[in-house]
Design goal:
- The chain has helices spanning 11-30, 39-42, 46-53, 58-83, 92-100, 113-128, 139-151, 161-172, 176-199, 205-217, 226-249, 255-277, 285-303, 307-330.
- It has 331 residues and is mainly α.
- It has one domain (3-330).
- α1 (11-30) packs parallel to α5 (92-100), α5 (92-100) runs antiparallel to α13 and α12 packs antiparallel against α13.
- The protein starts with 10 loop residues before the first helix and ends with a helix.
């Protein structure tokens, strides 16, 4: 399989991308897959609780989850088109992300990470507005405000405030005012929501108790099958190969492109650290780590000098997802 199939952004390629999205998500619409309660849903954050209240049947939750995946896929391509850090018009990030969402069928429904990812991508876009900006870059406050709002969906998104701080240092140096702005915005949505709860005589303290529970007290409740572990291993090798390819060539890139990839690496390592070391995250973290991974794999597929390597990795990610879908639905 050749990555050249996905070069450019033409109506045919968009149609192919749409077909892949529908194929990956067809199962949950027609087959009732057992869906466990994620640890981040046991004591959900306020905005996710509000959203869930309007979606009281499985079909509506799958449809909403699919809609978020379509939106995120569009945002991934648009982000690269606007900054052109992968110097190629390609729809590959969308395709790779869409495939990654099909790795665990029981997660193909609405979960708190989905709206949080939308806000996190908007946050990263805001960070990049500070590049070569004159004067104080208030866009760092906007970036942290997006993450602060994301906390009201998915508590563990708070750790991505580290990425905003890294962005300040990478793009602007150690400017205390901008470092302060990047922290302040994280807490504004929480304080505002607590104020709304207080005005309407609701339990404002529950917001912070649920935040503490989701960050520190909840337990992972998903067991990875051997087939999923093997597939994740292949994807991990592919992602790391892409990352090392980028690192080897980062000094040859345009300065802005290099900085975007550095921030995506921060995103990746924060997600990986949460996955391995935090009791507050479960299998939903795959959605988060798939965002930078989609860009790393896309860069590898576009710019790897080995045609065989590109074919193996691209074919491999299609095959692994297809096999996982089949195995999980025939059990």
């Amino acid at each position: 399989m050749s990555a050249n199939i996905f070069k450019g952004i033409t109506p045919k390629i968009i149609a192919l991308n749409s077909l892949i999205l529908v194929a990956v998500w067809a199962g949950p619409f027609f087959i009732n897959t057992p869906v466990g309660t994620l640890c981040c849903e046991e004591k959900a954050m306020p905005l996710y609780s509000l959203l869930s209240a309007f979606l009281d049947n499985p079909f509506a939750r799958v449809l909403t989850g699919f809609s978020f995946v379509v939106l995120i896929s569009f945002m991934l391509v648009n982000f690269n088109t606007s900054l052109f850090f992968i110097p190629e018009r390609t729809i590959l990030p969308s395709i790779v992300f869409a495939l990654s969402t099909g790795m665990i069928a029981s997660c193909q429904t609405l979960n708190p990470v989905m709206p949080a990812i939308v806000l996190l991508i908007l946050s990263l876009r805001s960070v990049m507005k500070a590049y070569r900006k004159e004067g104080t870059a208030f866009c760092f406050f906007d970036a942290s405000l997006f993450i602060g709002t994301g906390i009201l969906f998915y508590a563990n998104i708070i750790w991505f405030g580290i990425m905003i701080l890294a962005g300040v240092i990478i793009l602007r140096g150690y400017k205390l005012k901008e470092l302060f702005l990047s922290v302040a915005g994280l807490f504004v949505p929480l304080i505002f929501t607590a104020g709304v709860y207080f005005v309407f005589s609701l339990d404002a303290e529950s917001i912070f108790k649920n935040l503490e529970y989701n960050l520190l007290l909840s337990d992972k409740n998903f067991e990875y099958s051997d087939s999923i572990v093997a597939a994740l291993g292949f994807w991990g090798i592919t992602v790391l190969t892409g990352m090392f390819t980028i690192i080897a060539e980062i000094n040859k890139m345009k300065v802005r492109s290099g900085k975007v990839f550095v921030l995506l690496m921060w995103w990746f390592f924060i997600s990986a650290a949460l996955w391995f070391f935090s009791s507050g995250v479960s299998v939903e973290i795959i959605y988060l780590i798939s965002i930078p991974s989609a860009y790393f794999i896309s860069y590898l597929l576009v710019f790897s000098r080995s045609r065989v390597l590109r074919a193996v990795f691209l074919g491999g990610i299609f095959v692994t997802v297809t096999l996982l879908q089949v195995l999980q639905y025939i059990r």
